[in-house]
UniProtKB/TrEMBL annotation:
<protein>
    <submittedName>
        <fullName>Rap1 GTPase-GDP dissociation stimulator 1 isoform X1</fullName>
    </submittedName>
</protein>
<dbReference type="InterPro" id="IPR011989">
    <property type="entry name" value="ARM-like"/>
</dbReference>
<dbReference type="InterPro" id="IPR016024">
    <property type="entry name" value="ARM-type_fold"/>
</dbReference>
<dbReference type="GO" id="GO:0005085">
    <property type="term" value="F:guanyl-nucleotide exchange factor activity"/>
</dbReference>
<dbReference type="InterPro" id="IPR040144">
    <property type="entry name" value="RAP1GDS1"/>
</dbReference>
Length: 316
């Protein structure tokens, strides 16, 4: 098997009273046409949530249900309307209240966080800090959707990653992972969140299967993740997450992505090496069993000129 390794380390208002409409441009004339893309129920839901001040549970629940259903369908333009109508600050308030609507609001945030426009505004709207507070919950379903939301907020967004890390997301996620090791789905969500925070996540990690590796040192936990669809393919990707508690409540997480090629691939490479250059890396030849490793480092975090890896040390 041939491997290429990539690694990172971690440590540690309301709007106006106007009705909801969408605007679009005519591709031919360039003129702007206003058209009602949202259904009446979605428009009513957005307006009702936006103008809510007391957050009465019975009044909000049906509107959150409507918005969650539409968000799960990934309707185009919904994220823009959620942002423009100041829905995120309202959802942050619901999360902070920790009542019977909290789980539903967390599910909604996790769905909306798939969209870059929503991710960019999660910190300033109060969503991120509210989610971090939920990681101390004992409700495993709530933890599942909270971890999923955090992972999606951090995906492909360096600014959100750094803000979450500075606010202590690593030890909180580590605590959840270690408290519920038998909950495979929850463990997988936490591991995917670590990958996103290391800027090595995938947009959709639902196909990943995780297993805990054996023979780890004391105070260290190692997990391997692989796509369900990788079996039998000529190449595959394996993600390795190492969690190390180097002091009480202080963790370092290392994320590695290994790109592996089967022996069939390398047999073909050797057979046709005279005509095809698969990997122009002559300085890496000679490894036993076609083991080829390429390591990449990232700029340090927090900023420290002496660091060459992305390491985050945070406290509970």
């Amino acid at each position: 098997m041939a491997k290429r390794t990539t690694s990172r380390q971690l440590s540690g208002g309301t709007g106006s009273g106007c009705q909801v409409t969408w605007e679009g441009k005519n591709a031919l004339s360039g003129s702007v046409d206003v058209f009602d893309v949202l259904s009446d129920s979605l428009g009513n839901a957005l307006n009702a949530i936006r103008v809510s001040t007391e957050l009465i549970e019975e009044e909000l629940r049906p509107h959150l249900d409507t918005l969650l259903t539409i968000a799960q369908e990934r309707k185009k333009g919904v994220a823009e309307q959620v942002v423009e109508n100041s829905i995120l600050p309202v959802l942050a308030q619901v999360l902070w209240r920790k009542n019977c609507l909290t789980l539903k609001a967390t599910k909604l945030v996790a769905e909306l966080a798939r969209e870059p426009m929503v991710r960019e505004r999660c910190f300033h709207s109060g969503i991120s800090s509210a989610l971090l507070s939920l990681l101390s919950s004992s409700d495993q379903e709530l933890l599942l959707h909270t971890g999923r939301a955090i992972g999606r907020i951090g995906y492909d967004n360096t600014l959100q990653q750094e803000k979450l890390l500075r606010n202590g997301v690593v030890p909180r996620l580590a605590s959840v992972l270690l408290r519920y090791p038998a909950n495979e789905v929850l463990v997988g969500v936490c591991l995917l969140a670590f990958c996103s925070l290391a800027d090595m996540g995938e947009e959709d990690g639902s196909s990943m299967v995780w297993e805990r590796a054996g023979h780890a040192a004391q105070g260290e936990w190692v997990f391997r993740g692989m796509s369900r669809n990788a079996a039998g393919s000529l190449s595959s990707t394996v993600t390795v997450v190492r969690l190390h508690e180097w002091s009480t409540g202080q963790y370092m997480v290392t994320v590695e992505v290994l790109h592996r090629c089967s022996t069939v691939f390398w047999s073909a490479h050797n057979k046709f090496s005279s005509t095809v250059r698969w990997f122009p890396m002559p300085h890496l030849t000679g490894w036993p069993k076609f083991y080829k490793v390429v390591k990449y480092s990232a700029q340090g975090f927090p900023q420290n000129g002496s660091w060459t890896a992305k390491v985050f040390h945070t406290l509970l």
